[in-house]
User: What shape does this take?
Amino acid sequence: MQIGTALPNLHLLQPQGVNFKCNAQTVKTISSSTEMTKKHISNLEKLLQKTNPIDSSRPVIEPSSNRLIENRRKNLLEGLNLANIWPDEMRKAAEDMSPRHLNRLKRLLSSKSMEYSPRNNLANRWREYHGSNNWLGLLDPLDENLRRELVRYGEFIQSAYHCFHTDPATSADEVLPERHVALPDRSYKVTKSLYATSSIGLPKWVDDVAPDLRWMTQRSSWIGYVAVCDDRSEIQRMGRRDIVIALRGTATCLEWAENFRDLLVEQNDNNDEGVVQSKVECGFLSLYKTSDHRVPSLAESVVNEVQRLIEKYKGEPLSITVTGHSLGAALSLLVADDLSTCVPNAPPVAVFSFGGPRVGNRGFADRLNDNNVKVLRIVNNQDVITRVPGMFVSESLDKKLRESGAGRVLEMLDCRMPWAYSHVGTEFRVDTKMSPFLKPNADVACCHDLEAYLHLVDGFTASNCPFRPNAKRSLVRLLNEQRSNFKRLYTSKGKDLTINLDREHNFPTSSCLPSPSS
Assistant: This one.
């Protein structure tokens, strides 16, 4: 009996007593006929998934009878002994061509955004999700509501990137205007554009040499925005009116130059005895505090706008959420510190940072903790940016030394050493290697990419669990930006599904690092 003619007619066979055998010649014939085998697999899947219409003239089958039919089907497959008939290559081809696999991949590669977790009511627990208890019990395993909040705030940062890359240049003389930002959440509205100014100035001849790249050397650049929730139903769902400050990462030459000014400098004039002097990175503080003749400093703009909004919505429950990626994550800490100290009766302040570097010393970290600023740092295990600037000192070792009584010695070192940095807040760690789509040896740019961060957060279940199989975040933007870091299987599938990434989904990059493979 020929296998090629028998498989399409398996419904004629009875499960009892099947003794399905094949010789070596049969196996050789099947191996040389891959296309026919795939067709048979498809027919077999249709057979097993097919449900007979209910005939009212026949008695209703009880659940026990259903189980009997399933057992017969299972015995039939075991009798066929397909694992021995088909080589490993054919079984892999069958798995790759599975309709369920292809349909799921097609949904992930769709440009349409999908719900990645439930949009539940947070009114009774909003303070907990905003960090009142340092997200205790919500991170490992990751709470579904918190996952949605993290991805949502990450998309606010993506809007900042998109707005800047759409129009990066600013006038050299005119007052810088408000910008239109395409927010991912329509329940929010932008109330203020934010600009960061570098204290470094380049000679004019640099602009004359490359006038088309003038935006790369401009001192003041659009870096983010302030937005406020303005939808009653969303305010009711969240339990408060939320004020968001979103900040993008490094994009211009002068911002890069400020990043490398990594000496710690004093933040203020507080010299109280017994208190570790708060210090922050020189370049970050420069971008935050420097003003321009056209625009005030980032510090002044943020504080004034938040004070205005607090006064406008006086009497309502409010929250302040500061979110940023890379350089924006560093500036987010400076913003949160200012809001907690300079704004009287400030609402609860929380920071959600993605791929953020170290910003200050232990005194700065203690200052934020004392002011009740809640910080959740989302960190990719392969992202080197999260381990700079400063010395590569283990955070756990630092904690153990302080608990062992050596804290005073370390505080003295913090005061004297110009690179004694310390991280702030609670850490939520993800890992590129956990993604089934990304290469385990993905380059630095991919590991630091904001969309890669959101992809990993969306797929995270727990530290001891694999990537969640029901992750639904679209892969189009990630594949478009990090195609060389995708596993070959999924890159080829994207082409097979006729998805034109270059023409139809031309998203601006969110990473502040160029890809070495580009």
